Amino acid sequence: MIAFSLDGLALILLIPAVSAAVLLTLPGYVVTSKLNVLASFLTLVAALSLLWRRPEGGLLLHVDDLNIVFIVLNTFVGFTTSAFSASYISHEVEIGRLTPAYLRFYHAMYQALMFEMNLALVANNLGLMWVGIEFATLTTVLMVGIYRTPEALEAAWKYFILGSVGIALALFGTILLYLAAKPLPGMEIEAMAWTKLMPRADTFDPALLNLAFVFLLLGYGTKVGLAPMHGWLPDAHAEGPTPISAVLSGLLLNVALHALLRFKMLLAANGKAIAPGPLMIAMGLISLLFAALMLYRRRDIKRMFAYSSIEHMGIIAFAFGMGGPLANFAGLLHMTMHSLTKSAIFFSVGHIAQVKGTQKMTEIGGLTETHPVLGWGLVVGVMAIAGLPPFGIFMSEFLLVTSTFARQPMLAILLVIGIILAFGALLQKLNTLAFGEPKGGLAPVEASYVPMFSHFALILAAGVYLPAELVAWFQNVARLLK
Amino acid sequence: MALILDIATQGAQMMLVLALAPLLTGFVRKIKARLLLRQGPPLLQPYRDLLRLVRKEVVLADNASWLFRTAPYLIFAATWVAASLVPTFAAGLMFSWAADLIAITALLGSVRFFLALAGMEIGTSFGGIDSSREAMFATLAEPAMIMMVFTVALLAGSTQLSTFSTYMASSDVGLRVSLALALVALIIVAIAENARIPVDNPATHLELTMVHEAMVLEYSGRHLAVIELAAQLKLLLYASLIACLFIPWGLAKPEANAGDLAIGAVTYLAKLTALGLMLGIFETAIAKMRVFRVADFLGIALMLGLLGTLLLFVSRSL
Amino acid sequence: MDQRLIFDIAHLLAGGLVLISFLLLYQDRMFGLLNMFALHAFVLSLSVAWQAFAQDAPHLYITAAIALCLKAIVIPMLLRRLVVRLDIHREIETVGGIGLTMLFGIGLVALSMVVMLHVTEGADRLAREDLALALSVVLLGFLMMVTRRNAVSQVVGFMSLENGLILAAAGAKGMPLVVEMSIAFSVLVAFLVIGIFLFRIRERFDTVDMHALDRFRGERT
Amino acid sequence: MFQAVLVSPQLPQWGLKFFIPAVGAMMALAAALAVAYFVRMYGVAFLGRPRSQAALVANETDRWSLAAMALLALLCLLSGIFPGLLIDALAPVTTQLTSAHMPSQTSEILQSLVPISESRSSYNGLLVFIFISLSAAAAAFAIHRLATRSLRRGPAWDCGYPDPSPMTQYTAASFGQPIRRVFGTTVFRASEHVDMPSPGQTRPAVYEARIHDVIWETLYLPIAWTVEVLSKLLNKAQFLSIRSFLSLVFFALILLLLGLAIWP
User: Fold this and answer.
1) What are the extents of the domains in chain C?
2) Does ipTM surpass 0.85 in this model?
3) pTM score > 0.80 for this model?
4) Do D238 and A211 touch (CB under 8 A)?
5) Domain ranges of chain D
6) Which residues of D touch A166 (CB under 8 A)?
């Protein structure tokens, strides 16, 4: 059915799938972690090859301007996270928090997760995209519960219940969308293909489309972690192993948001349906302000950054809700920057938690003295995520605030209040973590700094100078998003 | 030839100012004594004191530094320059355009600055008492002075002293409320600056009441003489300022001949005696205030100055 | 069999499903709940089979078969054994009493009717009816999840919600991939059941949620 | 700046008409306060007897830092004496900002500063400086030449209390006390509390002055307080059970459905 040519598109799906199968059979975590890194690297190369030779999309899978951004981003962060997780897992086994038995399927699940995320990204068929995201949820649930501690189990269970309810709502939304598309008897399969739906979008039944968008927004919104449905996110991040937190907030949120964008474009294409903007703006602002205020009383370092992810997802939802080329451009840039920064922060946080043996911020202190590289890495990361100038996040937030101010000053004020609240909380916590007199244990950890600092280099580069073709690339996607 | 004449008149003014200063202080002391029905020191007593002091040996405190020894001359020079810039018998002299009224206020400010520093130089607490009180008075008196300058400058359209006096002498100024406020403010500031009775008693050495005395407590011999002369010059400066601003009739025009200059000098002397008389009467009629009530006293001056300026800003007529 | 009769039977089956959802809400004994759920799955498979017959779409039969054997037979029996072995709490505690939940349920059904009919003037009658009923089954399933304290009844609530989805999917004429999706869903449900068993969340779940589980929620220790 | 205040009555807006004199008064007050606190700073730091052991043995810094300071001080002095040069140098900047600049100053040789017009006001820094230094030198020379040059060192006048320790000198706080008493009570809500021991008691007297940072208390603390309260309020959302998170999503769904049912 799919033209089985070994082009980039097939490769980014095949490599993770095959390696997942292979890793299932191999015992011993050392070998599998090396293989895992290799597989991720190959997928990255395949994704990069897509940049030059882009195969024409079929009914089930396709690559267009929008998802190429996410594919490259996902595979790159997937690769760096696999490198980080190699050293992280080896240390966790040393100190006995994870036994090789628990790790038996870890690397296989990692590659399976990569496969499902790539599937969800390249899926042209909306049902396929749904299946991709659903199985991604399943695998991350198993990975979150890997520590077998009561908290991890509770977090995994909560994530599972909320995730599956979200998925169910999303499925109902997809069904409604299918009905709204009023497919002709013979062409059912086209009625599910996104590329076929887009041109016919304005013929859809507007009211049904609205209802579908409500369910999709709530369904995939749960996976994006927007405010009312965010319950699972903080605990999943805090209790799961750090590579998974990095994958969760770096990649999975983006994949869900990409799905949401697909449906927003469909809705925006249909004139008569309600504008998706206000809904997303409302959800964005609620999660921004809610997460910013929640930051102040957090005691666990990874949970704090989980709330920071919710906050940034709120900003991104707000950006895409605002619409218009500039706001969409800011949203896309912010998504890329956020996933790079947040995963880099989780790399440093992972090692810090291992060094200090705890995740409670009250027991961590004076990092820049005891572990200069880690400490300053964290400082750079928090400065970047808080939106300070030299880094990319400031660039996107700046564009967003200026474009919002031009059109809706009142919203811009709320946006800025949220950002400043979060800024205050992050710096207040950073102060106790990175500076002051050293606290907490000093377990020896040979950390892998390369992934972290490669991300920071990218963010700094994006903050200072955006290469022309990258800007052009983002711009035509922004126009696509309307 | 005209240049030499100008320099001569300017030199005459400087010498006149220097000569008259001790006389005015002596005259005021004489008036107060006469009012208290006592004989009082002769008019020329201040001259004799100055000469006696100049010839005395200077006793310096152990830790006095170069600042302590140079401050008196700086204070004297600044006050002398300021006093010579204020038109006394003739307006529009050669150097009068060198500094306007705001510059003179600033000069007096720097005099106060050096005097306070000199006061704190010697490590005793008296210097500290006095400098802090002087600083407090300054923070109120200087703004009041500047507000007074604003009021008058807004009316006359310039801050040049000579243009003030010519404008005030001209008839179109008319009776104005803001001018009256400015006059009262200037008088209050003058009293505070020269440490006259309600603010500080120039005659006593009682520590608790001292404001100007304590700063110069440690000076002796020629340094004390120079500072005394500077204080007397300051009194004369304020008197001639009041005379020039508010009773300008009789001031000689810039290129006036000898006759006008003579008339100007005579009227100036008359004005000085009148002002000295009034000061004497005022001082005997009023008792010294507590130091912290002086703040309200000066506060009134500031309010009056501000009100005067405000009125002028609002309407041209008031 | 003319069009009207087909529509009536489909309508009847879907209506029956909504009724059983209500009965699910009513149950307060664990085993009663499981039996009712088995019935719910059975009626669902009937309805899907009938849709397959109505739209003569052979692949729907597979979905019906899956629904029947997996959801109607295997899972309830598995849950029953689980309840017995882990002696899960037999009494079902609800939040806010059964009467109130039923009232709320009726309100939900009314809401879904209004929303669906208001929204879908365009589509043909059969699809509209089916969707409205499917939406009410979904909302009732959701309501059950929200108002129940113990784990098993929440899982049953989720499965009834999922049944509503399968009904909607089957109702949507010619929707591709329905089979794959129902398979995916059943895998999801299988995970649910294994999850309960693996994670030994006997009754430490919501019944005693104020103490046991709270203790493990983030940042509490 | 003061000349600017004097020029401003022509301003049309009424609000400014009232505002400018007040600003003028504030500027004057600021100038006077500046004199006060510089005297205080210089006096306490450099003048009087050394107040601590470290001050006793303190010695001069190296020549380089002194030279740096001296150079900058010289520049200040020169710009005070030759203001015309500086103003003309800045003229292009003012033209760019306000498309107008002060009349060029360096026309005559004696460079007196003429802010607006000749008749209005002029100030010649150089002339005044020469005037002062000449008269100071003349006075010093005359007195030294004509009168005595003798000088003798002796102890300072101690008003009957032998050898007062350096502690009795005026400290910064005591120097500021009169000004604080005049301005502080209104601006900083300053309050002083003196606890004198009743006669016969041996305990030392206690004097404390409390100053409130008004801006901090009225602006920043309320913001911090609201954020604190809000975050405490919302913090409960972290500890919700699974069921309550689910009900959150449920009510969101119901809300949106209601919105759809009623609105379009």
Assistant:
1) 3-216
2) no
3) no
4) no
5) 1-59, 61-148, 172-197+204-212, 215-262
6) 249
